[in-house]
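Below is a filled-in request sheet from our internal design queue. Each sheet records the structural input a requester submitted and the sequence that came back. We keep these sheets so that new team members can see what a complete request looks like end to end.

REQUESTER: design group, bay 2
PRIORITY: normal
MODE: inverse folding
CHAIN LENGTH: 455
BACKBONE (tokenized):
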């Protein structure tokens, strides 16, 4: 296994011909078929069924209703379950990525974890609105979250297999944009067909929570079908005989991980600095969507239906902006996209706070402006890291990427809570989220862009 200090050098001198399916984004002349990119992006399209429907807008709201117990108690238990899932991801993501790279089984583990997510989503149909089913729902949600994060490590690592330095921005942006749009299409179908009506399609009603429970089965099928193409279109990577998987590999993987971090500190501080910076601003991005609905409801008087309509609009603009920004990124660079997007998000957040007394139109305008830039930053962050990684170590570095993100996931919630406590109103929370974004921006500014091959 090459030392981490050779990361940049290996990326610069990667082969220029389409020889290895695991060739990195540093292979500037590799021919990538559009249908391969589309097949890869369909996993993102389908996976939004878990992100948008299960963890954000539908099931997480359903399981916190009074039928499962006192609101404060259930909310705390939900938070605990997701916290435990986050800890598991933080501890295991780097070594699972490392071991799948070594064994040449990136696609295999993507498949296994995708099946686990689909199964957990489908089994949520068993969670009736009674207190005795609360634990089942929380366990399925936590296990699904862990598997989803592990699958995302393998999926993100594939970016280098289906892109070159000349198009990695638009490929990443297209995939991320497809995720936003896929989630909104499914969410709209479920809301119109099952969630909102007193009697939905096929005679499904809210009685015993069947409208939500059926929605979980449909979400599982949506993800399962959408995920299939990537397994046929993207080839498996080759195993690295110098890196031994198996029990011995598991026992030594953590040592290798700490060695990697030490070598990054010694020889590749730009990569390490980016991992830290991206962890901070990605938590700020998560805070925009996590607390946006809270601010809309408490500070601007949005009712639940209006919040959902705003969420749909926010995801649509974020998805379209991400696809467009991907094309721009390939001309001006990923760092420029991240810097300007984060800066404009901070400005928009400040305008929401300052102009809040003028009415709900302020949140509709500047809240949507905030959401426009979330996707481009997420996509550019992924492609920026992809350019830094040498062939065969994508899973390892994207695993570390997931871990650093989890390590600081307390920042946006903590800043939001502190700002609200000090200000005495929910609107002050947006200042806390803006502060996290600004800190991430300041950490990002010194990071140098990777040298890449241009057309």
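RETURNED SEQUENCE:
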């Amino acid at each position: 296994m090459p030392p981490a200090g050779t990361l940049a050098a290996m990326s610069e001198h990667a082969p220029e011909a389409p020889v290895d399916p695991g060739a990195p984004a540093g292979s500037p002349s590799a021919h990538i078929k559009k249908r391969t990119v589309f097949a890869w992006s369909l996993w993102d399209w389908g996976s939004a069924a878990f992100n948008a429907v299960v963890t954000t807008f539908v099931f997480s709201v359903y399981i916190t209703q009074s039928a499962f117990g006192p609101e404060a108690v259930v909310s705390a238990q939900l938070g605990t379950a997701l916290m435990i899932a986050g800890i598991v991801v933080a501890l295991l993501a780097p070594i699972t990525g490392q071991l799948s790279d070594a064994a040449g089984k990136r696609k295999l583990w993507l498949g296994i974890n995708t099946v686990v997510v689909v199964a957990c989503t489908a089994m949520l149909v068993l969670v009736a609105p009674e207190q005795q089913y609360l634990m089942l729902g929380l366990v399925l949600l936590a296990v699904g979250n862990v598997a989803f994060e592990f699958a995302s490590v393998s999926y993100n690592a594939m970016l280098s297999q289906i892109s070159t330095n000349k198009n990695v921005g638009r490929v990443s942006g297209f995939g991320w944009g497809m995720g936003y749009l896929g989630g909104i299409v499914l969410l709209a179908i479920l809301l119109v067909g099952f969630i909102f009506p007193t009697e939905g399609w096929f005679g499904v009603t809210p009685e015993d929570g069947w409208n939500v429970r059926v929605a979980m089965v449909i979400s599982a099928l949506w993800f399962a079908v959408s995920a299939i193409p990537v397994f046929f279109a993207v080839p498996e990577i080759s195993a690295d005989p110098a890196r031994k998987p198996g029990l011995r590999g598991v026992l030594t993987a953590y040592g290798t991980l700490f060695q990697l971090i030490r070598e990054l500190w010694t020889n590749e501080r730009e990569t390490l600095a980016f991992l830290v910076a991206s962890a901070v601003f990605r938590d700020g991005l998560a805070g925009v969507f996590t607390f946006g609905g809270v601010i809309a409801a408490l500070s601007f008087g949005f009712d639940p239906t209006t919040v959902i309509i705003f969420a749909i609009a926010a995801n649509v603009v974020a998805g379209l902006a991400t696809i467009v920004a991907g094309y721009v990124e390939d001309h001006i660079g990923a760092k420029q996209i991240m810097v300007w997007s984060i800066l404009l998000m901070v400005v928009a957040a400040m305008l929401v706070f300052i102009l809040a007394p003028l009415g709900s139109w302020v949140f509709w305008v500047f809240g949507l402006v905030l959401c426009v830039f979330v996707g481009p930053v997420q996509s550019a962050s992924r492609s920026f890291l992809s350019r830094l990684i040498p062939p065969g170590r994508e899973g390892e570095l994207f695993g570390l990427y997931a871990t650093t993100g989890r390590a600081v996931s307390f920042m946006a919630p903590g800043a939001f809570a502190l700002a609200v406590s000090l200000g005495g109103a929910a609107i002050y929370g947006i200042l806390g989220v803006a502060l996290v974004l600004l800190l991430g921006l300041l950490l990002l500014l010194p990071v140098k862009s990777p040298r890449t091959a241009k057309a």
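SHEET NOTES:
- The domain at 32-444 is CATH 1.20.1250.20 (Growth Hormone; Chain: A;).
- Residues 71-103 form the longest helix (33 residues).
FILED BY: M.R.
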